[in-house]
Amino acid sequence: MTTWIFDPATDEPGRHDFLEITLRFDGDVTVCALHGPLCADTAPVLDGWLGQLHENDRHHVIVDVTAVPSVSSDGVDVLAHHAERFRAVGGALQVRAPSAVARRVLGLCAADDLVESTARADQAAVRTWR
Questions:
Q1: d(CA 119, CA 65)
Q2: How far is CA 29 from CA 34, 40, 49, 60, 125, in A?
Q3: Range of 32's domain?
């Protein structure tokens, strides 16, 4: 398991965003666990690491967003871009365990198809019970 932490400087005193990325390799699948906001400041870091995975023939990626409190359209753009790149070479990128807010942003950006299939099934089951 490998962990990287990105902590960009900000102009606002007393405020900073950080994104911790932990990679776990399980056979041909790479689980990329994020901790922190996926926003305009941190999305380029995820973009770089997903690009590195692609260049190193790691084309089956699960991005675990369990510990991501917020996702912006910038973050969704990075996920969608790399999902397309991985799909073009026979791979896949899936988003695991998005919060309700993250799901909403994914949906508004027309990227809710990236949510891991078991999560979509769970969400459908919840709607059925309402």
A1: 12
A2: 16, 27, 15, 5, 27
A3: 2-7+17-129
Instruction: Give, for 98, the enclosing helix (H) or strand (E).
Output: none
* CATH label of the domain that carries residue 79: 3.30.750.24
Two structure tokens written together for 14? 């007393």
Phi, psi of 85 (to 5 degrees): -60, -45
**pTM for the predicted model, two decimal places:** 0.80
Contact 70, 39 (CB under 8 A): yes
69 three-class SS: coil
Low-confidence ranges of the chain (pLDDT < 50): 6-15, 120-130
Instruction: Give 114's DSSP letter.
Output: G
Place of tokens 């690009």: 51
40 occurs within a structural domain: yes
In a domain, 71, yes or no: yes
Residue pLDDT, tens place only, 28-55: 999 999 999 999 989 998 999 999 999 9
